[in-house]
Amino acid sequence: MRAGAVFPGQRKLEMVALDEPKISSPTQVKLRMLDVGVCGTDREICHFHYGTPPEGFEFLVLGHESLGEVVETGSGITRVRCGDLVTPMVRHACPHADCVACRSGRQDFCYTGNFQERGIKRLHGFMTNFVVDDEKYLHRVPPELREVAVLVEPLTTAEKALLQIDRIQQRLPWNAASNQAGACGRAVVLGAGPIGLLGAMALVNAGYRTYIYSREPSVDSRAGLAVSFGTEYVSSQEQSIPQLGALVGNIDVIYEATGASQIAFEMLDVLGANGVYVLTGVPRHGQPVSIHAERLARNLVLKNQVILGTVNAGRDAFEAAIRDLGIFYQRWPAAVRALITRRYPLDRFREPILERSGIKNVIVLDGNV
Ligand SMILES: [Zn+2]
Ligand SMILES: [Zn+2]
């Protein structure tokens, strides 16, 4: 079988030939891969900023956002059957006996950092024909989501954030999504990439009046897409952050999905009373940014604010993402489909990774582009 791979040592991207993997324990499942989504993490790996091959390999098979079909099951499998569609988790637990997070199946909260990640860190990814994985990392997806289920993994970022926001806002004796005497809570999403747009869908669906603040002008097709599923789009080229703050009113949630630190911290100035600020982007190569630390600390205290960083996702967020993607697809079928810009065959895997274009590009592994 073939795979799209990166050779970090030789700084090249190439197709490689691999032996088909075999099931070697009762809890394993063999998948035929169908779709693999490409994101900024793949782009960084392919610019050699990131990405570690498995031990004994010069290359890393790419791909962490994926959809597969079960084609074979070990003798101890109970939750999936042949023919089921599944989306696999990306992160595998670290080996340390005293990492309570990994030992509890919550490697997304790993303490040691010695976890492995499919297609990112010390485990081959899904951009290939067949994969063997442990049942505990798989989530069943209903067949009606076949066309869009590759979006489950990127949606888990928002779902994990929402689960945490709900926990944090249990400190308030009212529902934070409808906090103002029956009116909606207000959320601002920073960035209109796939993480931002999926996050905005999740916030709209959770009951927030949701604004997307991004650099594309308000005549851009992304702005039209954002409006089509019930958000208000505000272009950062047209309105300043203070203007955005005045427009929205008390901002209950800011969901940052850009990885751009300067604007991320400037946005803190407009976070409302009792607000939660969620950072999901990973800034990597920026210069130091200046922030008004005193004002920031003052606001945090006097307005009961929370700043939350979140990465990866647990089983609960995967289950929520599958459920919610189904709801989004029913509510806004055209908008969900429009998140997937183009599909490419495996032998053209370099193109969508190296030439950034559109929202979400997908590598198709079963030949039907
Ligand atoms: Zn990704
Ligand atoms: Zn761990």
Task: Give structural notes.
The chain is an alpha/beta fold. The protein is 27% helix and 27% strand. The chain has helices spanning 40-46, 100-103, 152-168, 194-205, 221-228, 241-248, 261-267, 293-302, 315-331, 333-338, 350-354; strands at residues 2-7, 12-17, 28-38, 60-61, 65-73, 85-88, 91-92, 116-118, 122-123, 130-134, 138-141, 186-190, 209-214, 232-235, 251-256, 271-279, 306-309, 340-345, 360-364. Strands 3, 5, 6, 10, 11, 18 and 19 form a seven-stranded mixed sheet that branches. A six-stranded parallel sheet has the order 14-13-12-15-16-17, with helices on both faces. Strand 15, helix 7 and strand 16 (271-279) form a beta-alpha-beta unit. Helix 3 packs across helix 4 (194-205) and helix 3 packs across helix 9 (315-331). The longest helix is centred in the middle third of the chain and has 17 residues, at 152-168. It binds zinc ion (2 copies). Residues 39, 41, 64-65, 154 line the site of one zinc ion. The site of one zinc ion has 11 residues, from helix 2.
Cofactors, ions, other ligands: zinc ion
| Helix coverage percent | 25-40%
Average residue pLDDT: 95
Supply the helix-strand structural class. Answer: alpha/beta
Large-scale geometry = globular
Please tally the helical runs, counting DSSP H or I stretches of 4 or more residues. Answer: 11
- Span from first to last CA? 18 Å
Quickly describe the structure:
This protein has 369 residues and is of the alpha/beta class.
Fold blueprint:
Elements: E1 2-7, E2 12-17, E3 28-38, H1 40-46, E4 60-61, E5 65-73, E6 85-88, E7 91-92, H2 100-103, E8 116-118, E9 122-123, E10 130-134, E11 138-141, H3 152-168, E12 186-190, H4 194-205, E13 209-214, H5 221-228, E14 232-235, H6 241-248, E15 251-256, H7 261-267, E16 271-279, H8 293-302, E17 306-309, H9 315-331, H10 333-338, E18 340-345, H11 350-354, E19 360-364
Parallel strand pairs: 8-9, 12-13, 12-15, 13-14, 15-16, 16-17, 18-19
Antiparallel strand pairs: 1-2, 1-4, 3-5, 3-10, 3-19, 5-6, 6-11, 7-8
Helix pairs in contact: 3-4, 3-9
This protein binds zinc ion (ZN) (2 copies).
One zinc ion (ZN) binds next to loops.
